[in-house]
Design a protein that fits this description.
single chain; elongated
């Protein structure tokens, strides 16, 4: 019974968090299968590698400690933030190579998915290990669902945000920004683990995570608004050229695009998807070189042709 209850308590809230993150990315929503792959990496792959890495580092440094309590504290405060953020971020580097990984928002979504997957598995292990009484179990579920698991989400999303922001910058920034992002992710993890491992600092830990979560939400909201601006700015040229109607320019770059009636319903979703992808391909082309530039130019032409044919199908000449 404990295992079933713990499994449900670990999975349901974090899958709900994942859904909120995915749905909030309203203008250029990431493929659900890719989001779930990152979530599963966090839940399985990152956990396995984190356990292995922690055992190796603990084995190296434990001989320097004579007190078992200090060994546990070292593993919690130093080893865990270092190893776990690296193992969570590993798959994010693979996702980063995808042409669907466009910007800061995408980094937040994919990074957040990995962190939530990791938090789900870690929560389950904590629930079945330390939930010795009903009261203890409930307290652990509440604290870890509202704070610890969210910490994993925010920390890895932070690395993802810096990774995404660096994608179309110069080579120097492609190395510097992800390094800064990883350092901040490790600090968030360290600060939380350090504070809650000391009873006197626990209130500060909860305050720190509360502020960090608020900052995360604000950055995410600003980033999503930035995607709206990208869509509008990049499609202005398409409206001026007559590819898309001018009135559609404002609708496609706003939440109104999800409403019915402004275009034939049979093509609305395809039209939105194609126009959005066209806008982001044009943005990406500005920073691309060589083979990548050729790919984006060709994809832009294909999307323009697709949109032209799509609109012609409902407005035949």
């Amino acid at each position: 019974m404990l295992v079933i209850a713990s499994g449900l308590a670990a999975a349901i809230p974090l899958l709900f968090y994942l859904f909120l993150i995915w749905i909030f990315d309203r203008y250029d929503r990431e493929p659900l299968d890719m989001v779930l792959k990152n979530y599963l990496w966090g839940a399985i792959g990152a956990i396995i590698f984190a356990i292995i890495g922690s055992l190796i580092l603990s084995g190296i440094f434990s001989p320097f400690f004579t007190d078992e309590f200090l060994v546990d504290r070292f593993e919690t405060v130093v080893v865990a933030p270092f190893v776990e953020e690296l193992t969570k971020g590993l798959f994010l580097l693979i996702t980063f190579r995808s042409k669907k990984f466009d910007n800061l928002t995408d980094g937040i979504v994919y990074g957040g998915a990995i962190g939530l997957g990791f938090g789900m598995t870690e929560n389950f292990l904590y629930f079945i290990t330390y939930g010795t009484t009903v009261a203890d179990w409930i307290i652990i579920v509440i604290i870890r669902t509202l704070f610890s698991a969210v910490m994993h989400c925010v920390s890895t999303a932070t690395f993802g945000a810096f990774l995404g922001y660096s994608k179309y910058r110069g080579k120097k920034f492609r190395y510097i920004l992800p390094t800064i992002g990883m350092a901040i992710a490790m600090f968030i993890h360290f600060a939380w683990n350090f504070s809650v491992s000391m009873e006197s600092l626990a209130p500060l830990g909860f305050l720190f995570m509360g502020v960090t979560i608020v900052i995360f939400i604000i950055v995410f909201a600003v980033s999503v608004a930035g995607e709206k601006k990208i869509i509008y700015n990049e499609l202005v040229e398409e409206a001026q050229s007559g590819l898309i109607p001018v009135e559609h320019l404002f609708i496609i770059s706003s939440p109104q695009r999800n409403s019915k009636g402004w275009v034939e319903e049979s093509i609305r979703k395809l039209y939105i998807k194609a126009a959005t992808r066209l806008a982001f391909r044009k943005m990406q082309l500005k920073y691309a070189k060589g083979i990548n530039a050729d790919f984006y130019k060709n994809d832009i032409d294909n999307h323009r042709l697709f949109i032209r044919n799509l609109l012609s199908s409902i407005n035949p000449v």
